[in-house]
Amino acid sequence: MSKKFIPYANESDVLHIGGLTVENRSDRITISGDIDLTHDKAGQADARALHQLLTDVLAKLDAANLPDRLPPPAVGSAANPFA
Helical H runs in the chain? Predict the structure, then answer.
């Protein structure tokens, strides 16, 4: 990995671990997909990457003064550009 994934640092970083896609946001980390942690070196590497990601996320959360819950995101509408 050439660039370090810093949780909650921006709205653009994406990390891939096995079949998982991890999207960085300033107020949330979105993890989608699935992963098989196989009993081999590839599975070990994916498990280590996932462990590191969650360690980094928890460090950020533990260091912050967190609200009980985030407010729901603002939802707006836009004109249909194809109409």
Answer: 41-62
